[in-house]
UniProtKB/TrEMBL annotation:
The keyword Mitochondrion applies. Residues 66-119 are annotated as: Disordered. One of its GO terms (cellular component) is mitochondrion. Residues 70-91 have a biased composition (Low complexity). One of its GO terms (biological process) is mitochondrial respiratory chain complex IV assembly. Belongs to the PET117 family. Transmembrane segments: none annotated. InterPro entries: Pet117. Its main location: mitochondrion. This is GL25923. It is found in: Mitochondrion. It holds the Pfam family PET117. PANTHER family: PROTEIN PET117 HOMOLOG, MITOCHONDRIAL (PTHR28163).
């Protein structure tokens, strides 16, 4: 075998080995990056889950406070020395049922719509 063929064979083997080594190294690095991405995604999911639970708990607390407020405002308060006229329930005016009589009952509904400005 001649010197030129030996050098060519050596260079080819060296270049091939370097390429194969680089590809294996790059695959290992890519796998690690992918694995780190999965870990990061799991951490984000856990963080979001925790935040969502916290928000849900806040909403539950606010709902309880609102219900308690509504219950306290709906409970009858004792009246201090009311006159007999105040103790009787107020007479509620009955609304007419036909649309035409509704217009008669509500003068604001009979007003014309505001005119459009012309440019």
């Amino acid at each position: 075998m001649s010197l030129t063929s030996r050098v060519t064979l050596g260079v080819a083997v060296t270049v091939s080995s370097a390429i194969i080594g680089y590809v294996h190294y790059k695959q290992s690095e890519d796998r690690l990056k992918l694995h780190e991405g999965v870990i990061r995604d799991v951490e984000q999911q856990q963080r979001r889950k925790h935040e969502n639970r916290y928000t849900l708990q806040q909403q539950i607390d606010m709902t309880k406070q609102l219900k308690a407020l509504e219950a306290s405002s709906a409970s009858p308060e004792p009246q201090a020395q009311s006159s007999p006229a105040e103790s009787q329930p107020a007479q509620v005016e009955k609304q007419p049922k036909s649309p035409a009589s509704n217009l008669k009952a509500h003068p604001a509904a009979q007003e014309a719509p505001p005119s459009q400005p012309t440019d």
